[in-house]
Amino acid sequence: MKRALVCGAGGFIGGHLVSRLKREGYWVRGVDRKPHEFRTLEADEFCLLDLRQPENCWEALAIDGETFDDVYQLAADMGGMGFIHTAECDIMHNSALINIHMINGAVKMGVSRYFFSSSACVYPDMKPGDPEMTEDQVLPAHPDNEYGWEKLYAERMAQAYARHTPIEVRVARFQNCYGPYGTWRGGREKAPAAICRKVAMAEDGGTVDVWGDGTAVRGFTYIDDLVDGIYMLTQSELQVSANIGTDEYVTVNDLVQTVIDISGKDLEIRHVDGPVGVAARNFSKARMHALGWEAKVRFRDGIARTYAWVAEQAKEAYPTGA
Ligand code: NAD
Question: Model's pTM, two decimal places?
Fold first, then answer.
């Protein structure tokens, strides 16, 4: 039986990836500094470890004199635009330490394959209508935020280990991802979950506050599509970074209106000041398409599933309203 280690298994994508790997027949160990907030993990083992410490990375990677076949590194100090623009030092410090110690530990422990979760935030800002950007056009580098710079550094570090040691490295740059079992409140939630929460908690006839003017263009990838892409890329022989994302682009206003329509409520959108991030994203998925992967879940369907889950969470957490 093949063995996989999922770092960040207590998080949104890591939790879904554990389930996917179990379906593929892997023995799976999850590791995180906290348990999963919303689900019982299907991992064979789960370790609570702070991966900023090198000795904890060694412990996560140690497995009775054997080695893991695949390590999926998704642990990061992570959040939506509000978090990314305020917690710059934590992101640069904590995520860099995790990435430095995990790849080094994985090499020393003889791991065969190492997956690193990067982000579309490595790319410079784009304007709506700009032609799509290929992975190689990340250079000359000019990410919009420190989160993107840290990801770029960690990508390059992993690729350097791949060039100089026997480890195989796979790197995916994720577009915004959404779905059930992700953070939906508290300041680290991303736009789809935040909008689902605001709409779920709004009184019929009320308003929904949206940061910025809502014209920013985004692609939102449903979680099931993303974990399919992660798995396919890791099993492939593609040694260069690959973008994973949908071809269905929407504006933030489209996102909000879709959630409102699904809720069946009569709500007005109110634009307020707040961090909005880049104006647009449009990047090539040719590398993933060449592997036979493409996003299958339509935006409206994925948002409907996500809204149902967030609305249920909000009802349980605030039975009498906000
Ligand atoms: P998440 O915050 O839900 O999961 C990250 C997990 O890492 C959390 O459970 C957290 O506790 C854990 N972690 C943080 N610091 C740790 C430490 N010191 N030791 C051990 N565990 C630690 O985020 P996610 O959305 O599941 O993202 C997973 C990965 O994908 C991250 O690397 C993120 O940067 C990347 N990514 C996500 C998106 C997205 O839209 N969700 C987009 C681009 C890239």
Answer: 0.97
